[in-house]
Amino acid sequence: DTEVTQTPKHLVMGMTNKKSLKCEQHMGHRAMYWYKQKAKKPPELMFVYSYEKLSINESVPSRFSPECPNSSLLNLHLHALQPEDSALYLCASSQDNRGLQPQHFGDGTRLSIL
Amino acid sequence: GIQVEQSPPDLILQEGANSTLRCNFSDSVNNLQWFHQNPWGQLINLFYIPSGTKQNGRLSATTVATERYSLLYISSSQTTDSGVYFCAVEPPWGDSWGKLQFGAGTQVVVTP
User: Fold this and answer.
1) The pLDDT of residue B96
2) Percent of chain A scored above 70 by pLDDT?
3) b (16+ CB within 10 A) / e for B46-76
4) Residue B33 to residue A103, Cβ atoms within 8 A
């Protein structure tokens, strides 16, 4: 069992829907991450939160909106997504983002856009 | 950014065989991790190994930071070892802390 919990495990949505992905960790980590992984490709970083503040946005389209309400929780709000946004979305956490820390990944949410 | 190259891209093994996977990176790194992604998509942390050697059961890893490569050894492979093995590195620069850069992965298939 992973210590980073992601819900839902699967999500199918239309292009006009609004939905949210949720990620939770109780390891006391202060850095949290969202990654996107397309089939047969490696994960690609989307966002980094450090101490509940957004520290890195890898030029992600505004239809993806991250939120970190507290140190244990990370959300990814989705709106007006495109079919090419279908992918596995992975959340990770580490003690902080000052380097020299391993990242621990959740099991992911498999997202399909109709 | 840092370039991460993994070899071989694909590997087919018979159960019980040993193998070595390689990860080359183009610059010094703060962090190097090896992951196993199983067929269900779970990304499992195998090693955090910016330098030195570590062992965990049938798996071991060695990173030679000065020569910018890391090796992952799988001994007595089992069918459950099938999946994709990723190497990921983090640059040492302050504005890139937390930015794990993944290699393309090695697809491993272990046959009974």
Assistant:
1) 73
2) 96
3) bbbbbeeeeeeeebbbbbeeeebbbbbebee
4) yes
